[in-house]
Amino acid sequence: MRSIDTARHVLGYAYSPRLLAHDPPPTTVDIAGRPFPLGTANVSHAVLTAQAHELVTRSALCGVLVAVPLTPAPEDALLAVHTPAYLERLCAASAGGSWDGEYAPVTPATWDAARLTAGGVLAAVDGVLDGRLERALVHARPPGHHAEPDRAIASTYLNNLAIGAEHARARGAARVAIVDWDVHVGNGAERIFWDRADVLAISLHQRDWYPAHAGDLRATGGPRGEGCTVNVPLPPATTDAGYLLAFDELVAPIVRAFAPDLVLVAAGQDPSAFDPTGRMLVSAAGFRALAHRVALLAGEVAGGRLVVSTEGGYSPVYNPFCLLGVLEGLAGTDGGVPDPWAGDATVRAAQEPADDRVRDAVAAVRRVHQRWFS
After folding, report:
1. What pLDDT was estimated at residue 40?
2. Residue 121 CA neighbour count, 13 Å, CB half
3. Side by side, which strands form the sheet with 306-310?
4. What does the pLDDT look like over 319-332, one tens digit per residue?
C-alpha cells in the first residue's frame, strides 16, 4: 500500500490497527435485576474489522490503495455535531465512569478509537477536497451512523460522516449528500440534519427494522429542510437487483437534482445475505455494483469527490468479501479474490430479480418526494 503524497491518487484507504483496541464485551439486557449477556461476544467484535483488513491486504487492491494517515479528530470538529455534555460523558465513561448508551458498551479504548476513526474521515475529506485523492474509504471502528448529538446507539459513539459533512461545509462545500445503505436506519443523519437544506441524507434500510424511532417513509425533514431527509424502507429479502433498482430510480436522480459538492457514503455490509442482524439478500457482487454506481454518480455531480465510511457488517464468513467488493467498485478493478460463497444457494438467491414488493417501495418513495422528480 502506497503512502499519500502531493500527486493525485484514485483511491485512499484509511485504517489503523489501533482501532482494534476498541473491542467491547457482549451487550447485555436486564433480566430479573441482573445483566444477561447476548451471546459470547459483542456482535461488533474487533476480529471482524481485522479479518476484513487482512483480506484487503492480501488482495490485488493493496497495490492500488493509498494509505491515509489517521489522527484523532479535534474537539471543535466533534462539537460541530455532538453536545459538550455528551462528549464529556463518553470520555468519562472510557475512563471508568457511568454510562447509558443503547446497545453501545464502552471500553477504556472507546474514546480514543472513536476520535481516531472520526479523524480518518476528516483526513479523507481533506484529501478529496484538496485534490490529492479522487475518492477514499475509511475502514471505521467504531462505526457512526446511529450516533446522535447527545447519545450513543448500537455500537456507534461519534457520527463519523456527520462530522465529515460539517467539516466539508466549513471548508466551503455548499452542499453535501450522504447516502446510507446500511441495513439499519441512518437515524443519526436524520436527526442531525433534519432541518437543514445544505445536507441531503438518504437512507436505504430494511423496513420496520432498527431503530424504530427513525426511518419512516413520511419523515422528510423540518420546515427549512423539507425533502432533504429521504428514507427508503425496503422489504426483507431485497436482492442485489432490488438495491440497484432503488439506487438507479431514487438515489441517483435525487442526488443529481441536489447537486452536491461532495458525496459521503455510509457503507454498511449488513444487508449481506449472511448477516445475522438483517434479513436482506445482497452479495459481494451486489456491493461491488453499488460502489461502482456511487463512484460514477460522484464523478457526474461532484467532480468525483467521494468519501465512503464503513458501518455495520457482522458476518465473520462473508463481511470481508463484501468490504472487498465495495473497494473493487470504488477502484474500478478486480481484487483477484473470488467470492468463496458464489455457488451457495443463498448467494444465488441474492441474484434474483427485484420483485413487486421492491418496485412498490420505490414507487412509494417517488410519490412522497415528488419535488425531486418534477
Report:
1. 83
2. 35
3. 2-3, 66-68, 9-14, 133-138, 306-310, 262-267, 176-180, 199-206, 229-234
4. 999 999 999 999 99
User: Please, which residues have CB within 8 angstroms of residue 299's CB and are 6 or more apart in sequence?
Assistant: none
pLDDT for res 5: 60
Domain count, the chain: 1
Can you give the residue range of the structural domain that contains 33? 13-373
145, 146, 184, 205: which one is catalytic?
Answer: 146
Which residues of the chain have a pLDDT value below 50?
Answer: 6
Domain of 299, CATH number, reads: 3.40.800.20
pTM, entire model: 0.96
What is the C-alpha separation between 91 and 85, in angstroms, rounded? Answer: 10
User: Grid coordinates in use for 242?
Assistant: 432490488
146 is an active site residue: yes
Q: Is residue 3 part of a domain?
A: no
- Residue 7 falls inside a structural domain: no
- Note the pLDDT of residue 26: 86
